[in-house]
Amino acid sequence: MPLNSSAKTSEKACSPSNASAASNINIGATTDDALHYLQLVKDTFYDEPAKYETFLDIMKEFRSHRINTAAVVARIKHLFSGQPDLIHGFNYFLPTEHQIPVHAEEEVAHHADSVN
Questions:
Q1: Keywords of this protein's UniProt record, alphabetized (predicted)?
Q2: Helix (H) or strand (E) holding 89
């Protein structure tokens, strides 16, 4: 599935530009991982493009050092509320101490919604 120019631009927003930003992400994460995750977020919010744009804005603010990892986590937790798959995916890029807990009942509810 090809990415549009917004997603390509967001690749830069999500990839670290220096050592301090790199220390806040999973070292094993690749550019392909980030691009696939961006597409997942975009696909999830296909009917709510403002949420996808908010996600990109959060990543841009982080990359430009206007917000720290804790602020990113707080915003993402709120933005992705009710979307455990997105939270699990986002956790892949976070250091363990910043990962967002996903409660079992959220996953069950989300699965039930996706089946119906």
A1: Nucleus, Repressor
A2: helix 84-91
Higher pLDDT, 91 or 110: 91
Q: Give the range of the structural domain holding residue 59, as residue numbers without chain letter.
A: 5-115
SS3 61: helix
In contact, 84 and 39? CB cutoff 8 Å: no
Taking the model in full, what pTM does it have? Answer: 0.68
Rounded to the nearest 10°, the torsion over CA 101, 103, 104, 105 is: -160
Q: What is the Cα gyration radius of the chain?
A: 14
Helix axes 104-115, 84-91, angle to 10 degrees: 130
49-80 confidence digits (pLDDT tens): 999 999 999 999 999 999 999 999 999 999 99
